[in-house]
Specification:
372 residues, alpha+beta, Deoxyribonuclease I, Chain A, 2 domains, 6-stranded mixed β-sheet, 11 helices, 37% helix, Endo/exonuclease/phosphatase, catalytic activity, GPI-anchor_lipid_remodeler, transmembrane
């Protein structure tokens, strides 16, 4: 009997630690990493912490102990965080006049053949042709002006039926080769601009004023700071998954430093984007690779005055990053009030390390009529 009491006490202590960790994870989206850093790490682990507390809740209920109340209360306190990670929206038909927006981090069209498949670029092209988006936002875009080079990108895309106008800018140029970001549109582009990041890195955010059939909208296309994981970092993560800590303790400091730098850089970049959005004379659509999860401070800050298309019209977990870490939703299509997402899809294609995302966005007729 004493043995069972001892085990019960140990499990309850672990339950308390899991509950406290979950509370810290909730706080991550509200605490600046520049002010206090450690909650950001708990925020990254929030899905696992929620699952752990659910298991404790079920376990205590099965054995008939009142201790289940602890995890129940903590889970209830975070009811606003859970919908950011999973949605059960009913699928609806999009209106014929809705704008189809597609965003995809194309990882340089597999320029360096990470997938060892020289046809990946052509597969991406086929997907773009099939989707026929009205507005297409591509991150990690690559273009070469070397006419003898067979790896064509920009010139090929400009021949597609739904692509008439472009806005491409580059954060790194070496000879005729350019690395950056690009927005394509079937509608006329009236103005082009860039949100300047003064961090010496190659992250980039551009904005494009597009004259649609109804009104002018400003489309932001962003690629924010990544963690820059290398093979040794993935080995460290794999060791944690495999419960093998032999190499973990030699590499964890380097990994944590990379996470720290990325958290803080994204915070700065998001603040600059928000300043630009605040000055926009038009409704905005914000697309791209935030490189952070829906439970992060960067997401919370950016989405605070915007609507998330996935929350409005998505279904499932919406995972966009293809990999173990972070295997979460890190690509987004956000928009101003006055617009509404009628459909949202995370496409299944694995043509880079990100899934493409698509949203059908329309003008919110209900809000428009209220104003009238």
């Amino acid at each position: 009997m004493k043995k069972f009491k001892f085990l019960g006490a140990i499990f309850y202590l672990l339950n308390i630690l899991a509950a406290v960790s979950l509370l810290i994870g909730y706080a991550a989206s509200h605490i600046s990493p520049s002010f206090v850093l450690f909650p950001a790490f708990f925020g990254l682990a929030l899905p696992a912490l929620i699952l752990l507390n659910i298991l404790f809740l079920i376990g205590w209920m099965v054995v008939g102990r009142i201790r289940f109340v602890l995890s129940l209360i903590v889970l209830i306190l975070g009811y606003q965080s859970i919908p950011k990670m999973i949605q059960l929206n009913k699928m609806k038909e999009a209106s014929p006049d809705a704008l189809k927006i597609m965003s995809h981090n194309v990882r340089l069209f597999d320029l360096y053949m990470w997938q060892e498949d020289k046809h990946t670029r052509n597969d991406i092209f086929r997907l773009i042709r099939t989707e026929k988006a009205d507005i297409l936002c591509l991150q990690e875009f690559y273009f070469s002006q070397d006419k003898t080079y067979e790896f064509k990108t920009l010139d090929s895309l400009m021949t597609f039926p739904n692509i008439t106008y472009k806005h491409d800018e580059y954060s790194y140029v070496k000879g005729p080769n350019k690395w950056g970001i690009a927005t394509f549109s079937k509608y006329p582009i009236l103005n082009r601009g860039r949100v300047k990041f003064d961090d010496g890195e190659h992250n980039i955010c551009i904005y494009t004023d597009i004259k649609t059939e109804k009104e002018i909208i400003r489309v932001y296309n962003m690629h924010l700071a990544s963690i820059k994981l290398e093979r040794v970092d993935y080995k460290t993560i794999n060791d944690v998954y495999a419960n093998s800590f032999s190499t973990y303790f030699g590499n964890e400091k380097m990994l944590l430093n990379k996470l720290k730098e990325a958290f803080q850089r994204r915070e700065t970049q998001v603040n600059l984007i928000k300043e630009s959005i605040a000055k926009s004379p038009y409704k905005v659509i914000v697309c791209g690779d935030l490189n952070d999860t829906p439970t992060s401070y960067a997401y919370q800050a950016l989405a605070k005055d915007l609507e998330d298309s996935f929350l409005e019209a998505g279904r499932g977990f919406g995972q966009t990053y293809i990999g173990k870490f972070p295997s979460f939703r890190i690509d987004y299509i956000l928009h101003s009030e006055g617009l509404v997402a009628e459909q949202f899809f995370t496409l299944p294609e694995k043509l880079s390390d990100h899934h493409p995302i698509v949203a059908y966005i329309n003008w919110d007729k209900a809000r428009s009529s209220d104003k009238e």
